[in-house]
From TrEMBL:
Pfam families: Ppx-GppA (PF02541), Ppx-GppA_III (PF21447). Residues 307-472 form the Ppx/GppA phosphatase C-terminal domain. This is Exopolyphosphatase. Transmembrane segments: none annotated. It comes from Microbulbifer aggregans. It comes from the Bacteria. Its EC number is 3.6.1.11. One of its GO terms (molecular function) is exopolyphosphatase activity. InterPro entries: ATPase_NBD (IPR043129), GppA/Ppx_hydrolase (IPR050273), Ppx_GppA_C (IPR048950), Ppx_GppA_N (IPR003695), PyroPPase_GppA_Ppx (IPR030673). The gene is ppx. Signal peptide: none annotated.
Length: 488
C-alpha cells in the first residue's frame, strides 16, 4: 500500500510514550514500527498539579526521536493523544505548545472514558477469534481503565490509580515495607477501595489485560512470555514482593530494569483488581490504545467515524428536531464555502456537528438552552472526541445567537470566526424552522470586515429576518472582523 495508507498513533501516557506506525493489508492492521520512551510524566506532578520542568524536558526530548516517523504522513493519518497526567496538569499549556512544535501535529487530550474506549478497540483489533463478551483492563501510569463489552463497549470506567501515581503515593523512595508500614498492603487496599461496586465489570466474562504493567507481570510469571496470569500465581508473586524491603531488592526473572521502580505499585493495583473483582485468570493482549487509535483513524477516513455515531446518539437522546438541524447545517456549510473555498474536511464537519447539536439544550430549558447545551457538549464523555474538539463545538453552540462571548484563553483553542458567523447566520435564517433559499446571498471575508450582501427584494419578503440581521451587525461591531450588511 502507498504511504498515504499508513497511520501513526502516539500515546503520551503517564508512565511512557508509545509510538505505532501501521497500515492495513486486506482489511487487517499490520504493525510496521513501534517505539517507546519511559518518561514517567506522572512523577513530575507536584501537589499543585504543576509539571516539573526537568520531567517536561525529558518528555520533550523523547518526542524529538518520534518526529521523523510522523514526517510525510497526512495530518489526518496521525493522532497524538495525551492521557491522565496531561489531563491533570495545571500548567500543561506550555508543554503542549512545545510538544506540538516538535511533532508538527496537534495533541488531543482525551478523557478517561475515551481512553477506555480506544483501549477496548485496540484489544478487539487483535482479532483473536469470534466476538465474545469480555472485560478489558489496562493499568497505566496515572489511571486504570476497565471496559466490558462484546463487539463494542457496554460499560466503561476510568479510575485514578496507576503504577506511577501509586509509586509516589505509597512507596516512598522505593520502600516496599519498613518496621512500621507495609506499603504494598496499603496500596493494594487503596486499589480495592477504588474498585468497590465494580464487581459486575468482570462477572461471568473473559478477562483480558493490556499494556505495560500487566504485560510486565505476565512476563515475570511466564518466563518472559505474555502468557495467562493465574490467580494462584499472582497471589504468590504479590506475597513475594510484599515481603521485600525495597524495589531494588526484587529479584524477579523477566523484570525489565526500566520497569523496576514502578513494578511493586503496578502489581499492588493489579492484585487488588484480582482480589476485589474475584478474577481467576487473565489473558494478555499484545494490543492496546495505540492499535485502537489506528483503527479509529482508518474509520474516520473510510466511513466509520465514531464521532458521527456519538452525535447521532446525542441527537436522538436530546430529542433534537433533525429537520431543523439539517436545514441549519446545510445553510451554514453553504455560507462557509463562500467565506472559505476548499475548507478542510474536518472544519466543515465541525460546523455540521455544531448545527446538529445547536438545539440540544432545549431538552432542559428554553431560556438557557445555549448555555446548557454548551455545558453538556463540553463536559460529557463523547466517544471519539478529544477535549479540544468538544470545546470548539461548545463555543459554537454557546454563541449561536446574542452577544458573542470570548472563550477562555489557553493554548490550542483558537475559535474560527468563519464557522461562528456561518452558524449564526444560518440560525437567523431558519429561526422559525422554515426552509429558505440563500442562493442570492453574497458573503465575503475581506481584509478588515465580513461583507454580507442580500437582495432588498429578499429582505422585503422576510422583515423579521432583516431586523435580526441588523442586530447581528451590532453583535459583531467589537469583533476583530466586524460584519457589514448591504443590499442590492
Amino acid at each position: 500500500m502507498q504511504d498515504t495508507e499508513r497511520y501513526a498513533a502516539l500515546d503520551l501516557g503517564s508512565n511512557s510514550f508509545h509510538l505505532l506506525l501501521a497500515e492495513f493489508r486486506n482489511q487487517r492492521m499490520v504493525r510496521l514500527h513501534t517505539d517507546k520512551a519511559m518518561v514517567r510524566l506522572a512523577a513530575g506532578l507536584d501537589e499543585e498539579r504543576n509539571l516539573d520542568p526537568a520531567v517536561a524536558e525529558r518528555a520533550l526530548e523523547a518526542l524529538v526521536r518520534f518526529r521523523p516517523v510522523l514526517t510525510g504522513l497526512p495530518t489526518d493519518h496521525v493522532r497524538v493523544v495525551g492521557t491522565n497526567t496531561l489531563r491533570a496538569a495545571a500548567n500543561a499549556d506550555g508543554f503542549l505548545q512545545r510538544a506540538e512544535d516538535i511533532l508538527g501535529v496537534p495533541i488531543e487530550i482525551i478523557s478517561g472514558i475515551e481512553e477506555a474506549r480506544l483501549i477496548f478497540s485496540g484489544v478487539l483489533a487483535a482479532g483473536d477469534g469470534p466476538p465474545r463478551a469480555r472485560c478489558v483492563i489496562d493499568i497505566g501510569g496515572g489511571s486504570t481503565e476497565l471496559v466490558r463489552g462484546e463487539e463494542k463497549p457496554s460499560k466503561l470506567e476510568s479510575l485514578y490509580m496507576g503504577c506511577v501515581s501509586y509509586s509516589r503515593r505509597f512507596f516512598p523512595e522505593g520502600a516496599i515495607r519498613d518496621k512500621k508500614t507495609n506499603h504494598f498492603e496499603r496500596a493494594r487496599r487503596a486499589a480495592r477501595a477504588e474498585l468497590q461496586g465494580l464487581q459486575h465489570m468482570a462477572e461471568g466474562v473473559e478477562v483480558v489485560g493490556a499494556s505495560g504493567t500487566i504485560k510486565s507481570v505476565a512476563r515475570v510469571l511466564n518466563g518472559g512470555d505474555l502468557g495467562t496470569i493465574e490467580r494462584k500465581a499472582i497471589d504468590r508473586l504479590a506475597e513475594q514482593v510484599a515481603s521485600a524491603k525495597h524495589v531494588d531488592d526484587l529479584d524477579l526473572p523477566g523484570l525489565e530494569e526500566e520497569r523496576r521502580p514502578v513494578f511493586a505499585a503496578g502489581l499492588a493495583v493489579l492484585h487488588g483488581i484480582f482480589c476485589e473483582l474475584d478474577i481467576r485468570e487473565m489473558s494478555v493482549s499484545p494490543y492496546a490504545i495505540r492499535e485502537g487509535i489506528v483503527h479509529d483513524l482508518a474509520g474516520r477516513l473510510h466511513g466509520g467515524d465514531r464521532r458521527a455515531d456519538t452525535v447521532a446518539t446525542l441527537m436522538e437522546s436530546g430529542q433534537i428536531d433533525t429537520a431543523q438541524a439539517r436545514r441549519v447545517g446545510d445553510t451554514a456549510t453553504t455560507l462557509l464555502s463562500r467565506l472559505q473555498e476548499d475548507a478542510p474536511r474536518a472544519t466543515v464537519q465541525r460546523l455540521r456537528w455544531a448545527a446538529d447539536l445547536h438545539e440540544i439544550g432545549l431538552a432542559l430549558s428554553h431560556s438557557a438552552f445555549r448555555k446548557l447545551g454548551a455545558y453538556m457538549v463540553e463536559n460529557a464523555d463523547l466517544a471519539g472526541f478529544g477535549s479540544r474538539e468538544q470545546e470548539h463545538l461548545a463555543h459554537l453552540i454557546r454563541n449561536q445567537r446574542g452577544r458573542i462571548k470570548p472563550p477562555r484563553e489557553h493554548y490550542g483553542f483558537h475559535p474560527d470566526p468563519n464557522l461562528l458567523l456561518s452558524l449564526r447566520l444560518a440560525c437567523i435564517t431558519h429561526r422559525d424552522h422554515i426552509d429558505r433559499d440563500i442562493t442570492d446571498w453574497q458573503l465575503e471575508a475581506k481584509k478588515n470586515r465580513f461583507q454580507l450582501t442580500i437582495p432588498q427584494a429578499w429582505l422585503d419578503q422576510q422583515p423579521a429576518i432583516e431586523d435580526l440581521l441588523y442586530q447581528e451587525m451590532e453583535h459583531w461591531r467589537d469583533q476583530p472582523l466586524p460584519l457589514k450588511l448591504d443590499t442590492v
